[in-house]
Write a structure and sequence with these properties.
- The chain is mainly alpha-helical.
- The chain contains seven helices and six strands.
- Helix 4 runs antiparallel to helix 5 (140-160), helix 4 (119-133) packs parallel to helix 6 (172-196) and helix 5 (140-160) packs antiparallel against helix 6.
Amino acid sequence: MYNRITGEDPYTVPMRIYPAIHYTMGGLWVDYELMTTIPGLFALGEANFSDHGANRLGASALMQGLSDGYFIAPYTVGNYLASNKLEKVDTSHPAFKAVEAEVAGTIQKLLSIKGKRTVASFHKELGRIIWDYCGMSRTASGLESAIQKVRALREEFWSNVLVVGAADEINNAIETAGRVADFIELGELMCIDALDRNESCGAHFREEYQTPEGEAQRNDEHYSYTAAWEFNGACKPPILNKEPLEFHYVHPSQRSYK
């Protein structure tokens, strides 16, 4: 495969392996035992920064997940559970009852639609929209179009999806439909977030914001913050929460691949 892509035989010419953009994005901070700053919350695999983001080579994503899950987590998580007295958790909490009722309602709604389109067809169409308009390279007009397309797809999903089977049995169709419904919400949010950031930075490239030489054009004055979008209810605009980033020693700078 490498030979077909590059035209070079890796048996005679050293393979040119280097970290791609994806491998330099970092992840959640964890301590030596893979626990985050939230006690009891562990981050494994690509979710943490320990190897991910450290300019690791391709394929180490799989190795990191294996090493974290097989060699580290069974000891560190178990040690945490054994050395901390945790409050008893039961299903009588009002929050549990509310979520249980919400899930049951969603399942019944999915089964009652009895539309003509399969869940897979909605999944594929959503993937195509995101791929075409919210991939590595985006434009404002494309993102605006994507948002409208995703919203139209959501409306059709909840009126024309076909979910077979019953609720009182092991039903993978219901699980898949629920996941695709979530993907639609996430896909819309990805496009909203990309449209909100008027700069090119990291793997986020807005075609309107590039240097004369075609490099990504940063805007640290207005976008030097970490962001978290807050769910504001179904079909309501999400709320953007910002936390400023402060750099004392190593400051962001314009990147060039030349």
